[in-house]
Amino acid sequence: MTGMTDRAARFHALHTAGQPLVLANAWDPASARIIAATGAPALATTSAGVAWALGAPDGDVLDRDRALEHLARIVRAVPDELPVTADIESGFGATPADVAETIRGVVAAGAVGVNIEDSAQVGDGVGLRDVADQQERIAAARAAAPDLYINLRIDTYFRGKPEETVARAEAYLAAGASGIFVPGVADADTIGSLAKAIAAPLNVLVQPGTPSVAELAALGVARVSLGSWIAQAAYAVARRAATEAYTTGTYTALAEGDAYDFGELNSLLS
Questions:
Q1: Which domain of life is it from (predicted)?
Q2: Are strands 125-128 and 119-122 parallel, antiparallel or unpaired?
Q3: Alpha-carbon dihedral of residues 159, 232, 55, 264, nearest 10 degrees?
Q4: Whole-angstrom distance, CA of residue 98 vs CA of residue 91
Q5: pLDDT digits over 40-89, tens only?
Q6: How far is CA 143 from CA 12, 20, 87, 103, 180, in A?
């Protein structure tokens, strides 16, 4: 990829089957700084966590400008050399041209990768986007940023159509996707089969009960994402602590949450 920045090139190179890139997803500058300080090789955002932090639900409700402004703050919070990839839901726009505009904003914010999902509003609910339509959106994104790592999320396991997964992956790769993200799978045999069938780096979403990173590596996975789980856990601590304070008048939840030392966190962000 001619003229690719060092960060973009390093991010592409981190996607290796059998040596997965592990991404603990951030949702604001503080979580980004904390994750970067652990020695993370790259940083990813979670669209759900970002939406929640900005007071919106996940699912194409947050507007593009607020999302990109927040992304820029996250990028500025981490070391300049750390590659950042942004979860941009389905692209923050109805048309391929809209997606291209979003991608240009992502690059301007300093990110070197994106996640784009293939769910869409269908009638009164959410379903899978038409493959040809999604290919046009991917092609527009690729044209807008030739060096961007485009991780295409395929929601077939969420939408009850797992049999479409490989065909969609092939179509999306032909349109310009760099890698394929298949959330909703936790079975080792299924993950291994997908890794063999998809001719690109495979990304899986993990949660309690998913095979370990070492096991996923052996299955041929190239990228492991924690998604919104860290944000969910952080908000769960807030709920437990508040509930306890308002009911029993005690504060044990604060100790159970293994609170970050005030001085250490303040120093990290200074």
A1: Bacteria
A2: antiparallel
A3: -150
A4: 8
A5: 999 999 999 999 999 999 988 999 999 999 999 999 999 999 999 999 99
A6: 17, 27, 19, 10, 18
Residue 144 CA from chain centroid, whole number: 20
CB atoms within 10 A of CB 183: 20
Which residues, 6+ apart, have CB-to-CB distance to 31 below 8 Å? Answer: 49, 230, 231, 234
List, in sequence order, every beta strand (DSSP E) within 30-182.
43-44, 84-87, 113-117, 119-122, 125-128, 149-153, 179-181
- Residue-wise pLDDT for 114-129, tens only, equals 999 999 876 667 899 9
Global pTM exceeds 0.85: yes
Q: Rounded to a whole number, what is the distance in angstroms from the first to the last CA of the chain?
A: 37
Residue 193 is inside which H or E element, if any? helix 188-197
Mean pLDDT by 10 residues, the chain (270 residues): 75 97 98 98 98 94 96 97 97 97 98 95 80 98 98 97 98 98 96 98 95 98 98 95 96 83 91
Domain range list for the chain: 6-227, 228-270
- Mapping DSSP onto H, E and C, the string for 65-92 reads HHHHHHHHHHHHHCCCCCCEEEECCCCC
Is the Cβ–Cβ distance between 182 and 194 less than 8 Å?
yes
Residue 1: both structure tokens together? 């990829």
Pairwise CA distance, residues 84 & 80, whole Å: 10
Q: Do residues 101 and 95 touch, judged by C-beta distance below 8 A?
A: no
